[in-house]
What we know:
Layout: E1 10-13, H1 16-24, E2 33-36, H2 38-41, H3 46-58, E3 61-64, H4 78-90, E4 96-99, E5 102-104, E6 108-113, H5 119-136, E7 141-143, H6 157-168, E8 171-175, H7 176-186, H8 190-196, E9 202-207, E10 211-214, E11 217-219, H9 228-240, E12 246-248, H10 257-271, H11 277-283
Parallel strand pairs: 1-2, 1-12, 2-3, 3-4, 4-7, 7-8, 8-9, 9-12
Antiparallel strand pairs: 5-6, 10-11
Helix pairs in contact: 5-6, 8-9, 9-10
Amino acid sequence: MSPRYPVTGAGLGLRRALMGPLADSDADNLPDFLEVAPENWIPIGGALRRRFEMFAERYPLVCHGLSLSLGGPAPLDKAMLGDIRQFLERYNVLCYTEHLSYCSDDGHLYDLMPIPFTQEAVRHVAARIRDVQDFLGRRIGVEHVSYYAAPDQEMSEIDFINAVIAEADCDLLLDVNNVWVNSINHHYDPLTFLKALPIERVVYCHVAGHFDEADDLKVDTHGSPVIDPVWQLLAEACQRAPQMPVLLERDFNFPPLTDLLAELDQVRAIQNGVFNTVASSASMGLRV
Length: 288
């Protein structure tokens, strides 16, 4: 393990559909670590719990939460946070992250909603992140999310993200697919955005596929292979942060495990510098 990062190498999100193929595989390029959403695993028992514990014993784990609603107006769910703290401790989870968004008020909205880019929102979200860190007794990372509307935009997306991270004194979960998707949908240069993020705060990185609704509208789905421009952004990020762990996200439309492992091999190749970042950046119109 790198002293800077909680895990090393190339990881995969653990989904129930992948448990059988991963358990049965004897491939030599299996994931180096797994990411799980604690809310999906806390309530389970029986055979599924025992199967999960087999993976927890075999792989280093990181957790990426889905429903903490850091930007929401309702009080933080301390009962859920207590369950999450127990889960993190029980399975020796090496890193916990959540989304820089909100997903509930009086009830769950089952989507990640955009937080207004305002100074008031910075103070609100940063205070809640500090409360979570105090409750859990550990630093957390926040992921900048894909979004499709920007209400009350007093500041830019990048300025909002950086202000929250600085005021909360928390870490960052970098998602290069979100950078690409938002750059198309909101008309900014993805490399300029990437370079403005605090790379020294990154705990690990997400890479994923998305859906092309139109030339100027991309939807973050995690349901398709990673495309070349996103690989190229990942290469730029890895050049800025050598040894940065990278997690491949795939939530549905699962291909054969061999195809996912081939994408993991592409991640490892990029991590090892086997990628022409200058040429590829030029091919996607990025400034270097």
